[in-house]
Amino acid sequence: MARKKIALIGAGMIGGTLAHLAAKAEMGDIVLFDIAEGMPQGKALDLAQCGPVEGFDAKITGTNDYADIAGADVVIVTAGVPRKPGMSRDDLLGINLKVMKAVGEGIKAHAPDAFVICITNPLDAMVWALREFSGLPHNKVVGMAGVLDSARFATFLAWEFDVSVKDVNAFVLGGHGDTMVPVTSYTTINGIPVKDMAKIKGVSESRIDEIVDRTRKGGGEIVGLLKTGSAYYAPATSAIAMAKAYLGDQKRVLPVAAYVDGKYGLDGLYVGVPAVIGAGGIEDVVEITLSDDERANLKTSTDAVEELLEACKNLDGDLA
Ligand code: APR
Fold it and tell me: Distance from CA of residue 252 to its chain's centroid?
């Protein structure tokens, strides 16, 4: 059987990490695309030379030509500008919208059958715009945010309760940003609801609220520390989990930015929800029951996403 092909649009910090992870896992041959000349080629060469040491068989190439992504099974998009300290994800909108247009057109022309995972921020708006510009079916274009946000939530909870991260099943809904909705009622420590675990461990409700708040601002905390860019290890590994679910038809239930039309009272919007990823792409969106508070928080979050979509439509007449 021929190897799968994975195209990475954007060969920066996340793109390079994605290439390394995908190669190590022998997910397929990898094409790194970037507008910067020489950089994707240089990174590809460096990464290819990991092969003999790590023992993986994967062809890794770098390119500045969209024609080289032809026939890709999975495309992961990180092209754009990352957040700088003090910059909100929304400040990025204008710059990255133009990038999504170029990338969407490239995918449409050369890899229209791919499963496309968008990571570029502001995520919920960029994945929507990328879908619009590429014209691919909604179930084949998805955004990576929830896997990362839940991983952040799970990390902080595991630290607080002093338990293994493997046993924390964290649940996050809504847009990727300060309005995301960590759903504690669906978050468990191996089946034990967070509220119960907090009582057992003597952790106060306000401490859980602090953890929720830290999760919401998790990206910004890292930006503030790095000073020259944003997080890349955890975003990359989160997108790889989604790509594996598609390539392996795993039917995993993962929190992702999926197109929701009807469920959660939404009318054609990309937002973070639990969804089933298998060979059909996004095969289903799972609608969970929310408390009144959670529903209100989700509404705040989706309103913020809708505002961004309006801003995108004002910036580019093709989206109106
Ligand atoms: N086409 C292709 N690549 C592009 C384009 C474009 N039109 N515009 C910019 N790029 C490339 C840059 O040359 C750079 O190599 O995108 C890459 C982005 O890499 P980094 O700046 O290292 O950013 P990274 O940390 O990888 O984050 C990428 O993911 O989490 C989000 O907010 C983050 O939007 C940002 C994205």
Answer: 15
Q: Which CATH superfamily is domain 5-144 in?
A: NAD(P)-binding Rossmann-like Domain (3.40.50.720)
Residue from 20, 110, 138, 176 carrying the catalytic annotation: 176
Question: What is this structure's pTM?
Answer: 0.97
188-189 and 168-169 strand pairing: antiparallel
Ligand 1 pocket residue status of 51, Cβ below 6 Å = no
* CATH number for the domain running over 146-314: 3.90.110.10
Which tens digits make up the pLDDT trace of 157-185?
A: 999 999 999 999 998 999 887 788 889 99
> What are the Cα distances from residue 198, in Å, to 22, 167, 182, 192, 205?
37, 15, 16, 10, 8
User: Nearest-5° angle of CA 78, CA 83, CA 85?
Assistant: 155
Residue 242 CA to residue 159 CA, distance in Å, equals 25
Half-sphere exposure of 25 (CA within 13 A, CB side): 17
ipTM field: 0.98
Closest to 249 in 3D by CA, of 215, 287, 284, 277:
277
**Distance of CA 44 from the midpoint of ligand 1 (Å):** 16
Structure token digits, residue 269: 């919007």
Is 110 one of the catalytic residues? Answer: no
